[in-house]
Amino acid sequence: MVKGFYKRVLPSPSAVDFVSSNGKKLFLEAFQNGTMQGFNSLISYFQTQSELTYCGLASLSMVLNALAIDPGRKWKGPWRWFDESMLDSCVPLEKVKANGISFEKLVSIAHCAGAKAEPFRASHSTIDDFRKYVTKCSTSDECHVIVSYYRAALKQTGAGHYSPIGGYHVGKDMVLILDVARFKYPPHWVPLALLWEGMNYIVESTGQTRGFLLISRPHTKLDMLNFLDSNS
Amino acid sequence: MVKGFYKRVLPSPSAVDFVSSNGKKLFLEAFQNGTMQGFNSLISYFQTQSELTYCGLASLSMVLNALAIDPGRKWKGPWRWFDESMLDSCVPLEKVKANGISFEKLVSIAHCAGAKAEPFRASHSTIDDFRKYVTKCSTSDECHVIVSYYRAALKQTGAGHYSPIGGYHVGKDMVLILDVARFKYPPHWVPLALLWEGMNYIVESTGQTRGFLLISRPHTKLDMLNFLDSNS
Questions:
Q1: B18: closest CA among B209, B196, B177?
Q2: What class of enzyme is it (chains A, B) (predicted)?
Q3: Does the beta carbon of B51 lie under 8 angstroms from any beta carbon of chain A?
């Protein structure tokens, strides 16, 4: 007898499936409104987490490819390219495979990979900050937001999870989560406030809240100096 | 010294980058026109070919997930899900890894995986047929087209390649290729007639032309009987 699961049903009405007619309607409205500007680049590198504990690495790998950051070494054949296996410079992959990855470690891996990564803990930020950065990255190609949240707050099965944000619908105040656990949930729209609730949960092992990461190319001279400093 | 390539430049003007402003314009027009109906489901499972010879398997895996075909066995943990490693039922993966995959073998793997797969060789079909099926699948969620083509005809580097079609722009008669060699080319729009030229090239080893596959769920009783017949 075959056991296991073929996906999970998205909790309704809090989540709207990207593939549903309502999901497509939200998408078209947001696209026309100019708040899906980062979508084309990010979706071009949408990937499935290759291990059940690799949600952080898969989210980061997508964003690095979307930002056209060159890993500076080969993936396969002659090709320089990011996937999770290329994110082994600062934290051993076996450790991530066993335990997943903390918020701080993901930030340091992003730095090691050549990106600018700004972490925001929910406890040291506000929902208005979050909305501001989601708006900023959904109206340009220059940054992407990765969220760290507690799935149960969204009535989803599972615990802590990372995924990137694919766009924003201003009128409905909803974000498109490009869930890297694609074997479980399709991309879906959720109210930004509900996602914020999921980010504001305390992680028991650390006593700290979850939050979000703002990832971009280190393009200014000051950024480059900070980057070199943090990696020297 | 780092060698190899960080992507290839798309040949211009025959290809339009999906991420460029013109690519986004074509996308929005096609979306509004109703000829991107299969896009949301297919892009939700867009993946990179995990080996340099796996373009056929990656294209098929995307389409199987987009059609919500259950592999009936587990991928990782409790999850039933397709990636290239799950397409090992009829042709040994080691053989595909060494030599890539022929048109016929890809059809039989699609059948083995539980899909309906209709092959069309360019030599036994017409550009009008191709346009008809591209239109059919871009105006519904019920089928997807995988093309087998010769890259050089599109002025791209490389030889034979498979990728799925993500949508169609009627006015410009252009298709969106979701190139699974994402380390090489981003998704791009190309004139349907140019792609047809690439499909109409003869493969030296077989003396036959390339072509396209129409993939769908085997939903009718007759389809199921045909499917069972071809797998008994």
A1: B177
A2: transferase
A3: yes
Question: Is A55 annotated as catalytic?
Answer: yes
Give pLDDT tens digits for B61-84. Answer: 999 999 999 999 999 999 999 999
pLDDT at A219 over 90: no
Domain A16-230 -> CATH class: alpha beta
DSSP result, B1-51: ---SBS--PPPTTT-EETTSHHHHHHHHHHHHTT--TTHHHHHTT----SS
User: What CATH number matches the domain at B29-230, 3.40.190.10, 3.90.70.30, 3.40.1050.10, 3.50.50.60?
Assistant: 3.90.70.30
Answer whether A9 touches B (CB < 8 Å): no
Average pLDDT, chain B: 94
Active-site residue (options: A137, A169, A179, A188): A179
pLDDT at A229: 57
> What band does A31 get if pLDDT is binned at 50, 70 and 90?
very high
Quick one: which of B78, B52, B47, B90 has its CA closest to B65? B47
Distance from CA of A6 to the nearest CA of B (A): 5
Query: Rounded to a whole number, what is the distance in angstroms from the first to the last CA of chain A?
Result: 55
Q: What average pLDDT is seen over chain A?
A: 94
- Domain locations in chain A? 16-230
**What Å distances lie between residue A25 and A29, A179, B45, B124, CA to CA?**
6, 19, 20, 39
**Element of type H or E holding B135:** helix B127-138
